Amino acid sequence: MNQTALFKLSYGVYICTSWDEGNPVGCIANSAMQITSDPATVAVSISRNNYTHKCIEDCGHFAITVLAEDSDPKLIGRFGFLSARDTDKFAETAYEVRGKLPVPEGGIAYLSCKVVGKMETSTHTVFLGEVTDCDVLRSGKPMTYAYYHEALKGKTSVNAPTFAAASEPADAQKEVWVCDICGYEYDGDIPFEELPDDWVCPLCGMGKEYFRKK
Description:
Layout: E1 14-20, E2 23-29, E3 32-37, E4 40-47, H1 51-59, E5 61-67, H2 74-81, E6 95-98, E7 101-104, E8 107-120, E9 124-136, H3 145-150, E10 177-179, E11 185-186, E12 211-213
Antiparallel strand pairs: 1-2, 1-5, 3-4, 4-9, 5-8, 6-7, 8-9, 10-11, 10-12
């Protein structure tokens, strides 16, 4: 079976949020789609390893924030590679309550949903959500997963439905440095050792001390 066929499917980049006893939580999702139009219903796939998964089940509601190509990449690093079990992802992330759910700033649209069903797989739950509120927040081009990989050089979280360890080979012609926090790989034209001391990971915002040579 040639699993690279799955790479031909298209994906977006979203932040899926919910409440944890009154505290906002969220994680990155790349598998979300509209299922029906009347009533408007969407589906989102969340790993059972994600703390947000538990919160969606307990709360019964979730919101999807659509990220744009010009959204701050640190949102992806913060919500995609840190766990709400031990990190307050909203401590440095401005948000508003829209449709009774936390919606981080930086997206171009949001959908607030009530869980109306779910489907279990071996690793993920596909939550079905009836849209209770939604709006366009600003103009912008929705970010695709292809753009995230190609333009931002972002990596796939191990909890993502699309994760495949062998799908992202490093450039053998360049020296590569890897962020231990989010997995971002630096292979720029400037040697890593010559980057300014205040240089930070473009995805998660951590300093050079968190990088190791691959």
